[in-house]
């Protein structure tokens, strides 16, 4: 049985309240308890890191309302630019990318920008989930972001070089929990969970609510240049995600196709990757 948006709001709120109390205690000890030994401080740092990861997982839990389409869910519509959204998403994930040795590069944006009418925070969250997934796959490898206009619609493309994904898991990659099969275990902490496994499915739901969409396919492209089209005889070097941002119109009647989309998720940081 699918739970409604209120269920996620109440559960998320209660869990965040308890987590905030725990993190406040840890931060207090790390800052003011000067006589902590090395071992206790190391343990508190590990707890702090786990708490920050839990915050990101709770964001993903909150945003999972987008796994279900709801025409009555309102959005905060505004004019925005796809290039700016892509840069903001990358900025939120800069620390995660640096920690994994990932260099994010941008293609030149189209002249005049790539205007979009939509919920800027939700669109940023969607792009972040896609980019964050590519970063998680790409330790010490580059990731490319490209902003373009296709058919009058703004498109953000994310290309990684993290190796191919077998056809069967690739076909399920955008389904809930499908992304887990394509993320290699972290060699430092194999059991560490950075995502619930819903991010790509959430991104697809958000973009679909804007009249756009998300697709994924093998790519033989390289961030430093060269073909991005899989060709006969070439092995895929990674994945290419195409985020069509769609567009909605301000002032559309509630419940119309132009206003399908937003709940509490716009307030979530979406910086888990």
Automatic annotation (TrEMBL):
Q: Which UniProt keywords apply?
A: ATP-binding, Kinase, Nucleotide-binding, Transferase, Two-component regulatory system
**Reaction it catalyzes:** ATP + protein L-histidine = ADP + protein N-phospho-L-histidine
**Gene3D superfamilies linked:** 1.10.287.130, Histidine kinase-like ATPase, C-terminal domain (3.30.565.10)
Q: Give the span(s) annotated as Disordered.
A: 213-273
Q: Name one GO biological process term.
A: osmosensory signaling via phosphorelay pathway
Q: Which domain of life is it from?
A: Bacteria
Keyword Ribonucleoprotein tagged: no
The answer, when asked if RNA-binding is one of the entry's keywords, is no
For this protein, the record's Pfam families field holds: HATPase_c
- Record EC number: 2.7.13.3
**Residue ranges of every copy of the Histidine kinase domain listed in the record:** 10-228
Q: Which SMART domains match?
A: HATPase_c, HisKA
Question: Which molecular-function annotations from GO does this UniProt entry contain?
Answer: ATP binding; phosphorelay response regulator activity; phosphorelay sensor kinase activity; protein kinase activator activity
This protein's name? histidine kinase
């Amino acid at each position: 049985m699918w739970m409604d948006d209120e269920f996620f709001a109440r559960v998320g709120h209660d869990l965040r309240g308890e987590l905030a109390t725990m993190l406040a205690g840890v931060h207090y000890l790390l800052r003011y308890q000067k006589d902590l030994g090395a071992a206790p401080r190391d343990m508190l740092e590990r707890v702090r890191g786990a708490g920050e990861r839990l915050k990101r997982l709770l964001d993903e839990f909150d945003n999972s309302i987008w796994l279900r389409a709801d025409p009555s869910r309102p959005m905060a519509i505004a004019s925005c630019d796809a290039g700016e959204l892509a840069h903001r998403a990358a900025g939120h994930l800069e620390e995660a990318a640096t920690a994994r040795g990932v260099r994010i590069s941008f293609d030149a944006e189209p002249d005049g920008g790539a205007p979009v009418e939509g919920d800027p925070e939700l669109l940023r969250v969607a792009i972040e989930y896609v980019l964050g997934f590519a970063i998680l796959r790409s330790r010490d490898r580059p990731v490319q972001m490209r902003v373009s206009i296709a058919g009058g619609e703004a498109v953000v493309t994310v290309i990684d070089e993290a190796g191919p994904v077998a056809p069967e898991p690739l076909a399920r990659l955008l389904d809930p929990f499908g992304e887990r099969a394509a993320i290699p275990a972290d060699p430092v902490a194999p059991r560490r969970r950075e995502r619930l496994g819903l991010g790509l499915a959430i991104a697809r739901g958000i973009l679909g609510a804007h009249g756009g969409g998300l697709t994924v396919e093998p790519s033989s492209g390289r961030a430093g240049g060269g073909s991005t089209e899989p060709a006969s005889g070439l092995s895929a070097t990674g994945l290419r995600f195409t985020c069509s941002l769609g567009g909605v119109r301000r002032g559309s009647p509630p419940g119309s196709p132009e206003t399908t989309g937003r709940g509490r998720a716009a307030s979530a940081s979406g910086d888990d990757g």
